[in-house]
Design goal:
Blueprint (H helix, E strand, L loop, with lengths): L1 H13 L5 E7 L9 E10 L12 E4 L18 E5 L18 E8 L4 E5 L10 E10 L20 E4 L16 E5 L23 E6 L1
Amino acid sequence: MYMYILEWTQLSNSLPKYGGVTFTRWGRKSCPKTSKLIYNGQMANSDYRTPGGGSNYLCLPSDPEYDSYAPDNVPHSVLTRVWYETQENLNAFPNPTFKHLAPCAVCESDQRVTKVMIPAAVRCPNSDWVLEYKGYVMSMVDTHVDSTFVKGEYFSTSYVCVDQKAESLTSKPNTDWSGSHIYLSRAQCTGAGALGRCPPYKSGKALSCVVCTK
């Protein structure tokens, strides 16, 4: 029996490795130890004051390439930088992030075929899943929450899971408001549109998240 197991193991190791799932690690330049780096770069989105463009965040490579046949000077959408709006007195992340530019990394987990981002979670569903990283759910600010923002000047973006050990592309914070922002998210427990699930949800707590593969 041992010889059969040994032969099967040797045969399995000699076969080509197929499969793999990709995910983006928002807020970090590298991938977790459970995966390997495809490329890294910076987060990008439309300017927060621009109604056009995409609503999702992109991970732009550090070394862009251009097709020689791509047209110039045509009507276009604009991609701009993304910086953290985590407030100076908020200790959500161990590294300085307030008004710093956000990096990203696109990663591959070999021989795993599915992935999931679970909001309001700090662990994967069970031992069948591999925890790639955990962090906080982040998106554009809701202008109904803070009256200092001009209504209609901020537009919806996608929700992403930003690594809890988020780092920055810059050593110093930005001093202007151009580009796109990313803020912590939380459940709405009172007023119009309330979840109706409070508790267990808490209106003052930032939502955690995990990215899992299997």
